[in-house]
Design a protein that fits this description.
There is one protein chain. This protein has eight helices and eleven strands. The chain is of the alpha+beta class and 217 residues long. Among the domains are: 70 residues, RRM (RNA recognition motif) domain (Alpha-Beta Plaits, 2-Layer Sandwich), CATH 3.30.70.330; 73 residues, Alpha-Beta Plaits (2-Layer Sandwich), CATH 3.30.70. Strands 8-9-7-11-10 form a five-stranded antiparallel sheet, with helices on both faces. The chain has a four-stranded antiparallel sheet with strand order 2-3-1-6. A hairpin with a 5-residue loop joins strand 8 and strand 9.
Length: 217
């Protein structure tokens, strides 16, 4: 098997004895297009290999389903030995994908059961999402690979109906995070100290009224 094939393939262990291929598909279809499921359940404890079309979806599946409680069985989901994911990840393959972007939106109004994977799935309608995370206060961040996808998300997904994996529904607000791109230009004042356009004091003064307006609306 090619290296790319290993990137797309995950191992699923500690499955219940009566598991079926359709059950495996139901567990993993939400993470991306599945190209192959190989269920081994004739001898000994059952296990399976699931192969995705995109290695990024395989990473998402490992993160979301490793340790997942399925019918009283705590699933073991990982990349097969000798394979490695295509993108940087945390220890043992855990954690959201490490690829980051300056094209970020801020999301609010998420239901308590909304996960980063739910948010990523929802925002994929706007384009290629490279990073998503959620917080306990019902807010989240989403980063896109392309500027136009970020703008489309703000235009089309603001006040959209969001549904979590547990069925909770809410209407979320989506707005552009201008600070993510302004931070990438933060070195400019040091290089051109004489330029009033990038004065840190002036930028902070110009931002404070906009923040007060947003709270009053």
């Amino acid at each position: 098997m090619s290296y790319r094939g290993n990137e797309c393939r995950i191992y699923v262990g500690n499955l219940p004895p009566d598991i079926r291929t359709k059950d495996i598909e139901d567990l993993f279809y939400k993470f991306g297009k599945i190209t192959f499921i190989d269920l081994k359940n004739r001898r000994g404890p059952p296990f399976a290999f699931v192969e995705f079309e995109d290695p990024r979806d395989a990473e998402d599946a490992v993160h979301a389903r490793d340790g997942y409680d399925y019918d009283g069985y705590r699933l073991r989901v990982e990349f097969p030995r000798g394979s490695a994911p295509g993108r940087g990840m945390g220890p043992r393959g855990r954690g959201p994908p490490a690829r980051r972007s300056q094209y970020r939106v801020l999301v609010s109004g998420l239901p308590p059961s909304g996960s980063w994977q739910d948010l990523k799935d929802h925002m994929r309608e706007a384009g290629d999402v490279c990073y998503a995370d959620v917080f306990k206060d019902g807010t989240g961040v989403v980063e896109f690979l392309r500027y136009e996808d970020m703008k489309y998300a703000v235009k089309k997904l603001d006040d959209s109906r969001f549904r979590s994996h547990e069925g909770e529904v809410s209407y979320i607000r989506v707005r552009e995070d201008y600070s993510s791109r302004s931070r990438s230009r933060s070195y400019s004042p040091r290089r051109s100290r004489g330029s009033p356009t990038y004065s840190p004091a002036r930028r902070s003064e110009s931002r404070s009224p906009s923040r007060s307006r947003s709270r009053s609306n």
